[in-house]
Amino acid sequence: MATLGNSTNIFWHECPVGKLERQRLLKQKGCVVWITGLSGSGKSTLACSLNRELYTRGKLSYVLDGDNLRHGLNKDLGFKAEDRTENIRRVGEVAKLFADAGLICIASLISPYRKDRDACRAMLADENFIEVFMNMPLELCEARDSKGLYKLARAGKIKGFTGIDDPYEPPLNCEIEIQQKDGVCPTPGDMAGEVVSYLEGKGYLHYQ
Ligand SMILES: Nc1ncnc2c1ncn2[C@@H]1O[C@H](COP(=O)(O)OS(=O)(=O)O)[C@@H](OP(=O)(O)O)[C@H]1O
Ligand SMILES: Nc1ncnc2c1ncn2[C@@H]1O[C@H](COP(=O)(O)OP(=O)(O)O)[C@@H](O)[C@H]1O
């Protein structure tokens, strides 16, 4: 019996089919690929490209995209610091469930605060949390401005916009960093390929 947060008198119920059996069934290992970076840095692009590449290889993955989750699970949250923290905590918990289900869970959120990302890492066995930093310059993200939000933020019409008047704390020890080479951004396929190579090398795409 335990007390956790506001929940009292609660018990953990173990099911007979466990993570190992699910992984054997799927012939892969469950993990979380956590993509962090500024708005417009290419998080959703990488998430979708990686999702497609894994599917092509017969591997099951699922994308948890920050923007999309704010249409449902997280629609009660805004962008002040405590809301972002709760947003990341919830997605971290959901991602943990997907990884436990045996899937390669791809979470793509700005997740601007280091302590929030580290808290998600701490929810999983360390090697099962693969942090991917979209290290793109603000100038590039702002020039892309695919949703017109940077323009609104610069005009003061959106307050607390990440990179403009709200902080982004880059990872200190991420597993993968995606950046421009000679001023050129890798293609979506190349970005996905880099993550697939990492997963392959660490044995996530097989189960023996
Ligand atoms: N104030 C402010 N700051 C940053 N982003 C904003 C803001 N207001 C709205 N948006 C839009 O919300 C998307 C980011 O949602 P996330 O859930 O990923 O953000 S966070 O991780 O909680 O910081 C983000 O989507 P992406 O561009 O895909 O990153 C924006 O479209
Ligand atoms: N590697 C890339 N090469 C060229 N354009 C890209 C690349 N990644 C993203 N983009 C473009 O940049 C814009 C923002 O990408 P998006 O994936 O929506 O970023 P985020 O999810 O981080 O906000 C989109 O118009 C997208 O097509």
From TrEMBL:
Q: What class of enzyme is it?
A: transferase
- From which residue to which does the signal peptide run? none
Biological process GO annotation list?
cysteine biosynthetic process; sulfate assimilation
Q: Listed GO cellular component terms?
A: cytoplasm
Any transmembrane segments, and where? none
Q: Which Gene3D superfamilies match?
A: P-loop containing nucleotide triphosphate hydrolases
Q: What is its EC number?
A: 2.7.1.25
Which UniProt keywords are given for this protein, alphabetically ordered?
A: Amino-acid biosynthesis, ATP-binding, Cysteine biosynthesis, Kinase, Nucleotide-binding, Transferase
What CDD domains does the entry give?
Answer: APSK
Among SUPFAM superfamilies, the record links this protein to:
P-loop containing nucleoside triphosphate hydrolases (SSF52540)
Entry superkingdom? Eukaryota
Quote any Pfam family the record assigns: APS_kinase
The APS kinase domain extends over: 29-178
Pathway terms, separated by semicolons: Sulfur metabolism; hydrogen sulfide biosynthesis; sulfite from sulfate: step 2/3
User: According to its UniProt record, which reaction does this protein catalyse?
Assistant: adenosine 5'-phosphosulfate + ATP = 3'-phosphoadenylyl sulfate + ADP + H(+)
Assigned protein family: Belongs to the APS kinase family.
Q: What does this protein do?
A: Catalyzes the synthesis of activated sulfate.
Name used for this protein in its record: Adenylyl-sulfate kinase
Q: What species is this protein from?
A: Rubroshorea leprosula
Q: What is the lineage of its organism?
A: Eukaryota, Viridiplantae, Streptophyta, Embryophyta, Tracheophyta
